[in-house]
Amino acid sequence: MVPSALALLLALGAAATALAEPLRFVDCGSVDGSIQEVNVSPCPTQPCLLHKGTSYSINVTFASKIESQGSKARVYGEMLHVDIPFPIPEPDGCKSGIQCPIQKGHSYSYLNKLPVKSEYPSIKLIVKWELVDDQDQMLFCWKIPVQITS
């Protein structure tokens, strides 16, 4: 990314006044969908500072390229290129803001929570969030840098 585009993204992110701030993210393999926006609230700057004992709101707007009866989320903490499963309260995408069945060409807002448990270590890592369809193909996959802190 060129420096001026990065500066523009930073300015747009800083100008966001909604409860959730649009984030810079890496698409890590969205095959059956395309991500339009990722929001984590609160996360005013990146890397997101995730405080232990706090829950964060996740909102992903995406468009589906396929039809699917359902969807399932998988979340990981990526450290040293190893994915460590990160449990979330509701892995069923159809209970997380998505009206199922998912229809081709429609946009959806996926809503969930990311709880940061008190027992997690204070560490920098990458959060990797996947939503898969009935065929276990990725509707979306995104990654953001975070720092877990007390």
TrEMBL record:
The gene is Npc2. Pfam families: E1_DerP2_DerF2 (PF02221). It comes from the Eukaryota. This is NPC intracellular cholesterol transporter 2. The keyword Disulfide bond applies. Residues 25-146 form the MD-2-related lipid-recognition domain. GO terms for biological process: cholesterol efflux; intracellular cholesterol transport. Keywords: Disulfide bond, Secreted, Signal. One of its GO terms (cellular component) is extracellular region. GO terms for molecular function: cholesterol binding. The keyword Secreted applies. CDD domains: Npc2_like (cd00916). It is found in: Secreted. Residues 1-20 form the signal peptide. Belongs to the NPC2 family. Its main location: secreted.
